[in-house]
Amino acid sequence: LEEIPRPIQDSGNILKQGYLEKRSREPSFFGSEWHKRWCVLTQRNFLYYASEKSKQPKGSFPIERYQARLDPQIRKDSRKKCCFQLLCPGKRSYEFTAPSPAEAQDWVEQIRFLLRDLSSLTIPCDEDEEEEEEEQEEELSKDRDSSDSMDNSQNSAPNPEEPELEGDDIYEVMPGELRDSQ
C-alpha cells in the first residue's frame, strides 16, 4: 500500500481527490490545452499535481469565496457534460473536466457543501438569520417573564439581590407621621 503524497499544511484534511483534466490558462500551439492533473480538495484549499505521486503541487488556491458550477459550454466535444468551473470575483477562474458527468457533479456538490460549511463558521449577517435570532431572544424573554410572574405569585418577599430604589417620591407619608416629624 503506497501512501498518497499530501502537502504538510493540509495533511489529513482531504475531502475529495482524483484525476481531472485542467484547462491551461493560455492554450499552447504545441500541445493540448487540457492537462491531466491529480486534484485534491481539502478543508481550505484546492490543489493540483502533475500526478498522484508528485510531492509538490503545480498549483493551489484557497477554496473559500469560490463558486462551483457545472458548465457544458467549456468544451464542444463529447466530454462537455463532464465539465465544471470554479469561479471567484476578482480572481482566476479554473475549468476542469471529470472522467464522467456523475463525477463532475460529485466534485461540484463536494465543493458547494464545503463552501456552505465554511460560511457557517462566520458571523451571520443575513437578514433572515438576524430575524431568527430576534425571535429566539423574544422567546427567551417570554420564558423569563412567565417564570418571574410565577415566582412573584408564590413569594411576595422582596428579592435581596435587587437594589432598593432611593428618592422621596417612593415613600408614602401617613397623616399621623406628618405631625410627628414637624
Automatic annotation (TrEMBL):
Annotated stretches, region: Disordered: 124-182
Q: Which GO terms describe its cellular component?
A: cytoplasm; nucleus; plasma membrane
Protein source organism: Agelaius phoeniceus (Red-winged blackbird)
Asked if the keyword Nucleus belongs to this entry, the reply reads yes
Coiled coil location: none
Q: Which residues form the PH domain?
A: 13-116
Q: Where in the cell is it found?
A: Cell membrane; Cytoplasm; Nucleus
Q: Which gene encodes it?
A: Skap1
Q: Which domain of life is it from?
A: Eukaryota
InterPro entries, alphabetized? PH-like_dom_sf, PH_domain, SKAP_fam
Q: Name one Pfam family in it.
A: PH
Q: What is this protein called?
A: SKAP1 protein
Compositional bias, Acidic residues, is annotated for 125-138, 161-171
Which keywords, in A-to-Z order, does the entry hold?
Answer: Cell membrane, Cytoplasm, Membrane, Nucleus, Phosphoprotein
